[in-house]
Amino acid sequence: KFQMSASENRFVFIVEWYDEQACLVRSYNLTYYLDDHTIDMFDIKNKRIFLKRTAYKGINLEDLHIGSIVTIYSRQLKVVKYADAYTQNAFDASSEKTFAMIKPDAYLNIGKIISLIFQAGFKINKMKMSRFTEDTAGIFYGEHKGKHFYPNLVDFVTSDVCVGLELVRENAILAWRELLGPTNTQRAKEEAPESIRAQF
């Protein structure tokens, strides 16, 4: 999956942990070693080792991407940044982001849809539930203004809440289109019965 030179055998991420007792956000370098799947952590502010290199079964490389949350010894750590250029280049080269929206007629099935998204190998970087106004719908669907279906489209997306998601995986755009299935529901049911549009 990742192209590595012989001298590069680890990826480094900046992670944050909210210390409730001190009311502080603490930042660490989290290093994942590919040779033996071990990790270590370095306290950035205090410039000292926080966790010596150790095997930790709860962490896999697939869990580490911008926006993900991992738990290490009861601490919930959020991955906020790649700590070096090598890690960033490796992940940027292998991953792609795409936007997905669950519309009013499907959001009651959001749990099932998210399960399908995970099963298809996606990670969810961001997720937000909100409701369009006529103005925001007009901005979002501006390219369709003047078309015969535009008024019905605006009425539909403003009728209830929508859920926006930022999805990440290799070839995310193509994979999301395949998971969605054909735009026409009947065609989706016939040609891609396991797709989201066919099921919901």
UniProtKB/TrEMBL annotation:
SUPFAM superfamilies: Nucleoside diphosphate kinase, NDK (SSF54919). Keywords: Cell projection, Cytoplasm, Cytoskeleton. Pfam families: NDK, PH_NDK7_N. Residues 7-95 form the DM10 domain. It is found in: Cell projection, Cilium; Cytoplasm, Cytoskeleton. It comes from the Eukaryota. InterPro entries: DM10_dom, DM10_NDK7, NDK-like_dom, NDK-like_dom_sf. Its main location: other. Gene3D superfamilies: 2.30.29.170, Nucleoside diphosphate kinase-like domain. GO terms for cellular component: axonemal microtubule. Belongs to the NDK family. This is DM10 domain-containing protein.
